[in-house]
Specification:
- By secondary structure, the chain is an alpha/beta fold.
- The protein is 38% helix and 17% strand.
- The strands form 2 sheets. Strands 4-3-2-5-6-9-7 form a 7-stranded mixed beta sheet, with helices on both faces. A two-stranded antiparallel ribbon has the order 1-8.
- The longest helix is centred in the first third of the chain and has 11 residues.
- The N and C termini lie far apart (70 Å).
- 37% of the residues are buried.
Length: 289
């Protein structure tokens, strides 16, 4: 008897053969073929019958099927038109799913949330994201300040590590600060490449981002803050002093930068990777004018 779940090697192969589907490298398509991993993702994402779920890139519906079984409603954004008839078949019988054929980066997600979910309903994003476009998608979801409660995504392990990194580690950088400004970030699962078809060249991790109700630090100017953070990591091996002097060349001389750093008790000879979010906030606020 054939397995009903989409996420098994046999069923996935069967679906691909039936529809003569070929993977598009440009879309970073890697389908999950392990039901247990999907169940773990659903659990880590906190999906239950009260929650609305948004999925990005449902593929042939492996994760979508599990979401449909656990969530109240599911909205899935799929850019590849060739997958629409497949999803219609694999999700048959699940009338709580809407598939939208659109690029998430161009979509008005806020409007979609208003249209498909109850007012005040918890909305959680759950996705197996294409590696090549992970950061733009996540930064759009965060910076648009959408009414979502959390994001749980399968992404490249190295990127997940960077997003959840702490100060004084190799992975810590401006991406860590950007993600952690909006969310509390945690790697909840490491996933071997063997559970995908086709197998990617790298291992994956599931990253859980719980949205913050308010920013963790007080800033004079948000854009300036991110600008300063980026500048301090400009050349990782260089000191704060050197990176900032290069960034503010023509606006502030070295002595002025030194004075301001000392004013907030930050040693100019430190490196960007040693600063916690609060220190970056003090630094940006004292440099802002």
């Amino acid at each position: 008897m054939k397995s009903k779940a989409v996420a098994t090697p046999t069923r996935t192969k069967e679906i691909l053969q039936t529809y003569g589907f070929s993977f598009k490298k440009s879309l970073g398509q890697n389908f999950l073929i392990d039901v247990n991993i999907l169940k773990n993702i659903i659990e880590e994402a906190g999906i239950d019958g009260t929650v609305g779920a948004i999925e990005i890139g449902p593929g042939i519906g492996a994760l979508t099927e599990q979401l449909a079984q656990h969530a109240d409603r599911v909205v899935a954004f799929e850019i590849d038109q060739r997958l629409l008839p497949i999803l219609e078949e694999t999700l048959e019988g699940h009338n709580n799913v809407n598939v939208i054929n659109q690029d998430i980066l161009k979509a008005d997600v806020e409007r979609v949330i208003k249209e498909h979910f109850e007012q005040g309903q918890q909305v959680r994003v759950v996705a197996n994201l294409p590696y090549y476009i992970t950061t733009p998608i996540l930064m759009k979801l965060l910076m648009d300040r959408l009414p979502i409660d959390s994001i749980t995504v399968m992404i490249q392990k190295e990127v997940a590590d960077r997003m959840a990194a702490s100060p004084n580690t190799k992975s810590y950088g401006s991406l860590s600060i950007a993600v952690q400004y909006y969310t509390e970030a945690k790697v909840v699962l490491n996933v071997p490449k063997t559970v995908f078809m086709p197998q990617p060249n790298v291992d994956s991790s599931v990253l859980h981002l719980e949205m913050r109700k308010a920013p963790p630090v007080q800033l004079e100017d948000e854009e300036f803050f991110f600008d300063v953070v980026k500048a301090t990591f400009g050349q990782r091996r260089k000191t704060l002093m050197n990176n900032l002097a290069r960034h503010f060349k023509g606006e502030m001389d070295k002595q002025e930068i030194r004075d301001r750093l000392e004013k907030v008790g930050i040693d100019p000879s430190r490196r960007g990777e040693s600063l916690a979010m609060e220190e970056f906030a003090s630094l940006a606020n004292v440099l802002y004018k």
